[in-house]
Design brief:
Elements: E1 8-11, H1 18-23, H2 25-46, E2 49-55, H3 77-91, E3 96-101, E4 104-105, H4 116-125, E5 130-133, E6 137-138, E7 141-142, H5 143-155, E8 160-164, E9 170-171, H6 172-183, E10 190-193, H7 213-219, H8 226-240
The protein binds NADP nicotinamide-adenine-dinucleotide phosphate (NAP).
Length: 242
C-alpha cells in the first residue's frame, strides 16, 4: 500500500469452498474476516476506497429474491464469515462498498478453474452424463457483468451494499438445460438430483436471487440475461481458450 499508494482497493480474494470453511473455521475467519479488518485499517488511515465482494449465501434462501436491506441469516460458515466481514465494513468509517453476487460464471484464462457454464459445457460436449440439482434456485452472474459493476462502483466511489446478478430466477437444472439448448447438446445426458441427495439441503440456501433496483439506479448497472451471455461466452472461448 505504501509503495503503490492506491486510491481504491478491490478485494476479491477469499476462502470460498463451503466445506473447507466448515472444516477449518479458524482459517476461514482469518482469510474472510481478519484480512478485511486489516484492509479497512489501511483504507481508513490513507483515505482509500474499498470494494468488497460478498455473496447471496449471507441469506438463508427461504425468501428470495432479496433486497440489500433484507435480514441476513447464513446457513453455513462461509456465509457467516461474509456477514461478519460486511458488519465490520459497515461499522467502519472507511469509504467502502459491498457487492453481493451469485453463482458467477464465464470464461477463465486459468484452465484449472471452472464454473457452472464451463463445467456443463465441457461434460455435455464430451457426451458425459451429469446430475444437476433441481431444487436450488439462483440468478447467475456473468463475470463480465460483475467486472462492470466493480468498475462502476470504483468510478463512483460508491458506499453501502449493492446486489449484483442477472434478473431471471433459474433452478441450477434449468440453467444447465439452457446451456445444453444453446450449444445443441443432448439434454437426455442431464438428470435431476435433489439438494438433499447431495447433502446440501441444510447448508446451502434453497432460493436466493436479488432485486437489482438499487444497483441499476445508483451505479447504472445493466445486467446481461443468462441466455444472452451464452453467445458472448462462445465468442470468448474461441478467442481466449483455443
Ligand atoms: N464464484 C461465485 O459464484 C461467487 C459467488 C458469490 C460471491 N463470490 C465472491 O467473489 C470473490 C471471488 O470468488 P471466486 O469464485 O473467484 O473464488 P475462488 O475461485 O475460490 O478464488 C479465490 C481467490 O482468492 C485467492 N486467495 C484465497 N486465499 C488467499 C490468500 N490467503 N492470499 C491471497 N489470495 C488468496 C485465491 O488465490 P489463488 O489463485 O492463489 O488460489 C483465488 O484467486 C470471493 O470473495 C467470493 O466470496 C463468488
Amino acid at each position: 500500500m505504501e509503495e503503490f499508494q492506491p486510491t481504491h482497493i478491490l478485494h476479491t480474494a477469499a476462502m470460498t469452498a463451503v466445506e473447507a470453511c466448515e472444516q477449518d473455521p479458524a482459517l476461514c475467519q482469518k482469510l474472510n474476516v481478519d484480512v478485511v479488518k486489516l484492509l479497512l485499517e489501511t483504507a481508513e488511515k490513507n483515505n482509500i476506497h474499498l470494494t468488497f465482494l460478498s455473496t447471496d449465501f449471507v441469506f438463508d434462501g427461504k425468501n428470495g429474491p432479496y433486497k440489500e436491506i433484507d435480514e441476513t441469516n447464513p446457513c453455513n460458515a462461509y456465509g457467516a464469515s461474509k456477514v461478519a466481514a460486511e458488519q465490520i465494513i459497515l461499522a467502519s468509517s472507511a469509504k467502502a462498498a459491498i457487492l453481493r453476487t451469485i453463482l458467477v460464471y464465464g470464461v477463465i484464462a486459468d484452465k484449472k478453474r471452472s464454473n457452472l457454464v464451463l463445467w456443463a459445457k465441457s461434460k455435455l460436449g464430451a457426451h458425459e452424463a451429469i446430475k444437476v440439482v433441481n431444487d436450488q434456485w439462483r440468478m447467475p452472474t456473468w463475470v463480465d457483468d460483475l467486472a462492470d459493476a466493480c468498475i462502476l462502483c470504483i468510478e463512483k466511489s460508491a458506499t453501502g451494499i449493492y446486489h449484483i446478478s442477472s434478473e431471471k430466477m433459474y433452478s441450477v437444472l434449468e440453467a444447465v438445460q439452457e446451456i445444453a439448448d444453446y450449444w445443441g447438446y443432448d439434454k437426455s445426458l442431464i438428470s435431476p438430483i435433489s439438494a438433499a441427495e447431495i447433502g446440501q439441503s441444510e447448508n446451502r440456501p434453497q432460493k436466493t436471487g436479488f432485486i437489482l433496483d438499487k444497483a441499476k439506479k445508483e451505479l447504472g448497472y445493466r445486467p446481461t440475461s443468462f441466455r444472452d451471455s451464452l453467445p458472448l461466452i462462445d465468442q470468448q472461448i474461441k478467442f481466449y481458450m483455443k
